[in-house]
Amino acid sequence: MDFSFDNAFDLTGQVALITGGAGGIATCMAELFAERGATLVLVDRSEEVHEAARALGSQHLGLVGDVADEASVQGVVAEAVEKLGRIDILLNNAGIGPLAKAEETSVDLWDATMAVNLRGSFLYAREVGKQMIAQGGGRIVNMASQAALVALDGHLAYCTSKAGVLGMTNVLAMEWGPLGITVNAISPTVVESAMGAEGTWAGERGENFKKLIPTRRFAQPEEIALAALYLVSGAAGMINGENLVVDGGYTAT
How far apart (Å, rounded) are the C-alpha atoms in residues 114 and 22? Predict the structure, then answer.
């Protein structure tokens, strides 16, 4: 096996499917993966996903779909395989983070968070996993969060959903590792994105939280994309069932 840098991080000929693909961290992932030679399938509820795919080049595919809907997921995966022949990489990136104190958390908020963050990741992992089993291998990366590891105020549903993602990651890694499929997770701190530092963690709340992070800053989307690239690369063939924490040391304190 050639472990040279260029070969290990070459994604030429591989098809990568990214959920939540219309913007944010997904844009950085898609641009980086395309630069390394992959063909992208971007999936999102927003019609903007078509433009996001076109911006990468005509060979890339943008599909509208709801990660929480089983029929939608099955349809998207089938269309991707029909048009591109295979799926080598899955990045379960779609997520939402509505906040509420525990005693004020409604059933609707709870169910919506679980539907996108946990059921959506499960559905895509299951359907893409079937394709990877048929192909004889693949790479799956599930986006979790530092919130899967520690308690955050107002994050009852979010913390629970992301902890579930880690449990799912471990089981899939155990079951599918012998089939040539590695399954790992990434747990970022707050990321400088619309959902993170520009949304929930904007302003004074974010500045106060940075003081609790040993590196005294939030993560950049590019840093998360590079972490994902490592986990799907030829350099990480023995990394399976792991949770790569990109949090500046927040959960270490």
Answer: 21
CATH number of 5-191+221-237: 3.40.50.720
Separation between Cα atoms, residue 81 and residue 131, nearest integer Å: 8
CA 135 to chain centre: 22
Q: Strands 39-44 and 61-64: what pairing?
A: parallel
Q: Side chain identity at 100, as an amino acid letter?
A: A
Alpha-carbon distance of 129 to 122, in angstroms, equals: 10
pLDDT along the chain (253 residues), means of 10: 90 98 96 98 98 97 98 98 98 96 98 98 98 98 98 96 98 98 98 73 90 96 98 98 98 91
Return d(Cα 211, Cα 199) in angstroms, integer.
18
- The yes-or-no answer on residue 124 being catalytic is no
CB contact at 8 A, 208 and 152:
no
Tokens representing 182 are: 């590695």
Q: pTM of the predicted model, to two decimals?
A: 0.96
What single-letter DSSP state applies at residue 85?
Answer: S
Catalytic one of 124, 158, 230, 250: 158
Q: Tell me the H-state helices in the chain.
A: 5-8, 25-35, 48-54, 70-84, 107-114, 120-135, 156-176, 203-210, 221-232
| 3-state helix, strand and coil shares in percent for the chain, rounded to the nearest 5 | 50, 15, 35
Q: Tell me the two tokens of residue 183.
A: 């399954």
Distances (CA, A) of 221 to 6, 38, 145: 23, 19, 14
CA distances (Å), origin 153, targets 101, 117, 156, 175: 7, 18, 8, 34
